[in-house]
Amino acid sequence: MTQDDTTPLTQAPNALPTTSGPMKTIAVGGTHYTLLGTAHVSAESANDVRQLIDSGHFDAVAIELCDARHHSMDNPDAMGEQDLFQVFKQGKAGMVAASLALGAFQQRIAEQSGIQPGAEMRAAVEECRTRNLPLLLVDRDVGITLKRIYRNVPWWQRFSLFSGLIGSVLSRQDVSKEDIEKLKEGDMLEATFSEFAAESEALYTPLIRERDRYMALRLAEEAPPGRYQHVLVVLGAGHLKGTSEHLETPLPENPKVERESLEASPPPSKLWKAAPWLITALVLTGFVVGFSRNTDLGWQLVIEWFLINGILSGGATIAALAHPVTVIATFFAAPLTSLNPTIGAGFVAAGVELYMRKPKVRDFSTLRHDVTQLKGWWKNRVSRTLLVFILATVGSAIGTWVAGFRIAGALFGSGAA
């Protein structure tokens, strides 16, 4: 496919090379935006980018990357530079694990296809450096997108969504030709979530529709009409239609305001925020009622609460191959943290694991490679600590519900006094 000729360029359209992917030029004010739809697993798309930049036609290049992915591209070991304790403290462990899983999926694609996904973005970065051209990063941060996906889907779909993500990227089965073809139409996030996105408007909106709008707003900020004459916009073919439609309609005079609204994480519902405190109040009330009826019953409820929480959470850390001290600490901490919504069993477990098995330099240097294999998640101390955090958190959550129902059954069941 070649460029859309409906909008004239200041240079003749035939001054641009013919491309293998769709291309459309939109004139806004004194600036012409040439949107190139690329395939993220395609040597041809990378060549298209090089040829267009080499033509000397453009004085700026915008690409479908965020700061974090650009930094990761320049520094593959960037993940290892993070302070793990701060990751857990700030509640980012799940997002980091998801990013590692996505990276593992990307590596599998590269191994099977012989092409590194995002080769056309790398080509744009390299060409801009060589020619000293402004490089504009216009996509939304991947962490924000994942958070908005998480907040936007109903709570009962979240576990299946992200367990499906982790399961699919850790599978050692070959990625099908159909999945690779999907990558040629969209991007890594879209390919990973495509099974869900097609059926879920709640998922499709933050994953695709919002990003189309976001990239148009970023272009209006970073390359407003008149700042540059010709801007090359390199983005996945699946985003070309939506982004171009936004550029063709008047954008806000102050695009920053709307852009920042698309970066905000939707707050959890008041009920969801209150749930941990409500559960704590109900459990403590159960203990009081139990002791008021019978001292033995009261102690029975306390012991069951302690054992169920401790065994499930501590057992989960065993599944993560945690240090024995971590397992013991989690066993004793989980029953208490379950009654304190300000701290979780996963945080305690990860903290102890970091103290007992501090990751070494080689763990960070081999992290990206290790997580491409299922056993690598347990072998590498960094990824294993993430597993300890996640599994301890899940075990504690399950233990809270199981023990809670046991208390309710003992107090209000048919055998209650």
From TrEMBL:
- Write down what this protein is called: Pheromone shutdown protein
Keyword Electron transport among UniProt keywords:
no
Alphabetized UniProt keyword annotations: Membrane, Transmembrane, Transmembrane helix
Q: Which gene encodes it?
A: traB
The record lists the membrane-crossing segments as: 274-291, 303-322, 328-352, 386-412
Q: Name one Pfam family in it.
A: TraB_PrgY_gumN
Where are the residues of the annotated region Disordered?
1-22, 244-266
Write the lineage as a comma-separated list: Bacteria, Pseudomonadati, Pseudomonadota, Gammaproteobacteria, Oceanospirillales
Q: Which organism is it from?
A: Vreelandella lutescens
